[in-house]
Amino acid sequence: QVQLVESGGGLVQAGGSLRLSCAASGRTLNSYTMAWFRQAPGKEREFVAFITWSSGSTYYADSVKGRCTISRDTTKNTVYLQMNSLKPEDTAVYYCAVRRPGKYDYDYWGQGTQVTVSS
After folding, report:
1. Would the N or C end of the chain have less CB density within 10 A of its end CB?
2. pLDDT of residue 27
């Protein structure tokens, strides 16, 4: 079992920056993949970025590539999402998720943190 707690959301003007954090607890994360997803009102949840815990390899959705950076601190069991040049269309609830080795789906999720970007 893995518990995930997100923080760092808030209200920011277009062009601004935010850093989201996701603290994981419950077990070690070696060989796990951690990701950020988001869901805007009336829209389906969409993938934002992932990072592999062991090697730190990353992958981004085209919509955030070049504006967002996912990173992890293995000493704090925390993953971050640095978001720059924010746009109103980035407004959403952002969720942290974990995928176990060998699994296709992300099966542990946080409660989400709201990001609102004003124009």
Report:
1. N
2. 77
